[in-house]
Write a structure and sequence with these properties.
Elements (H helix, E strand, L loop, with lengths): L3 E7 L2 E4 L2 E4 L5 E7 L5 E7 L5 E8 L3 E9 L11 E11 L6 E7 L11 E8 L2 E9 L4 E9 L5 E6 L4 E8 L5 E11 L8 E13 L5 E7 L5 E8 L5 E7 L3 E3 L2 E3 L6 E7 L5 E7 L5 E8 L3 E8 L3 E2 L3 E2 L6 E8 L5 E7 L5 E8 L5 E12 L3 E15 L4 E5 L9 E3 L5 E2 L36 E2 L14
Parallel strand pairs: 35-36
Antiparallel strand pairs: 1-4, 1-34, 2-3, 4-5, 6-7, 7-8, 8-9, 10-11, 11-12, 12-13, 14-15, 15-16, 16-17, 18-19, 19-22, 20-21, 22-23, 24-25, 25-28, 26-27, 28-29, 30-31, 31-32, 32-33
Amino acid sequence: MGNIYVAGRFEGIIMLGDQPLESAGNSDIFVAEFAASGNLVWARRYGDEQFQSVVDIYVGSRVFIAGEYQGDPTFTTASLVQSNKTGWFIAGLDTGSGQADWVTGEPDNSTSNLTRIGIEAVVETPNTIYAVTTSGTLLSRNYTLRKFGNINGSQSHSEPVGADIAPSALARTSSGELLRLGSFTGSTQVLATGPTLTATGRDAFVAQVTSSLTTQSVTSFGGPGSEHAVGIVELTGGEFVVAGYSNDTFTVGGDTLANQGGNDTILVRLSAQLGILGGAAFGGSGVDRFDAIAAGTDHVVAVGSSGGSLDIGGPLPEGGESDAIVVKVDGASFSPVWARRGGTQLSQSATAVGIDSIDRIAVGGTFTEDLDLGLPLSSAGQDDGFLVQLSPRRPRFSLQEANEGIGRAGLGSHRLWANMKPGWSRSRTDGRSLDQPPTGPRPPRPWTAHDVVCQLDGRVAAEPSSSYRA
């Protein structure tokens, strides 16, 4: 089975396995590989005394990380151009060592305090890297789809995204084609070419994009409210399932997705040609959303958060202001198979999921205080990151890594690449062996963790079997 790749940002000192990493200053990047046994293979730190962070990770011919930086993270001898404000980067790391062998990016040395640039996502298709970058002000963002060579990182082509388009993710099909998804308002095109989309309110879209950055096919769905597509998976027969959330009732493929209050989670089925086939919604009285999705042999697992009463095949006990949720549904009918909810009085969210070839599930996210998705976890201070592995039927094992108050730490990527096997557990963050109890108080850590996303090299399944806290 494959290994686990994780990327994020930290301040101060963080323990990854038995290896300490110390930041050079404000916030540095960490990237690590764990073996399927749970043992650390390697861990790398990149950064200088200024701010660096990761927003996405994709494992293909290399470990590709995308993020934002000030100063110079110094990935390779060919350093990035110094950025006074926050610039964006993509770096390619050797899968066996984590050593960076190329990097590309764009600094932001403008004098305006109202504008900024950034990056949203990165994905590799055969021989090509694609990324979505941003620019503009907080209230008016512009998006660009960029294409790079996968060896030297040189940009070969870029296309501006249509007006009023907000891309949320990039994905690739089993045949290597590029998919992009997100939301939009008004009448617009996903790229400069392709059909015009017209939204009723804020609608979700999925587009298939050619290697020349033109729109090959596109579909949209929504109603008078706001719909957002955040993740997509391909089923064995070539159909797709999109996960997201909506704040109003709307119809897809003859199925009415009734809103129960606030935001509700949604699943929408598409044909191989992106035709709308149907959908389902799950929600309650509060704010519910899916943030990631994965596909198993005959089912789909989606993860997210819920902020109120929720019934998915039965009532799920409410923990606090926002709880992490994991939902397994039948791949053909979207009927709930089981659902799990974990949380206490404060905030918990599952933001990543992956399924391997034997239907074990890995779920990643952030939590404060305590979390139990089948195996209990306790945070070291305020917000920690977690990774939980679930078997198709019952909890298996738990992995935790965290900063014990020395500074800040967070899993920051939109993907955590993992392919784990059950049977291992970690809970130390301070270098002691696993059989030594922790000593001393845990000082508070006022910080906010980034989103975590988990994707397996194989396919997916789900009930708790491991946990990773950072």
